Amino acid sequence: xxxxxxxxxxxxxxxxxxxxxxxxxxxxxxxxxxxxxxxxxxxxxxxxxxxxxxxxxxxxxxxxxxxxxxxxxxxxxxxxxxxxxxxxxxxxxxxxxxxxxxxxxxxxxxx
Length: 111
Known about the structure:
Elements: H1 4-31, H2 37-72, H3 88-93
């Protein structure tokens, strides 16, 4: 079982990596200044991919920030929907998750 300090360190490390990735994406998008129409079209396609990657990274950063706040409040590791403890296995896979397995988004309701 990982300690809260270990989980915090892992989340902080991931946060740093994502922030660095966002800077690289931003720099890459700003560098594009081709004058050739064909190159511009290719760059625009690449920019769309970069924008999607950036959006994904920003979403994960928001999840990490929220998880760090839950840690500060003593609520990390508990489902925000039902209050049940989130399994270690789930936290190992998705350290920033605010949901237990039963309340994970996209899960089909039981019944």
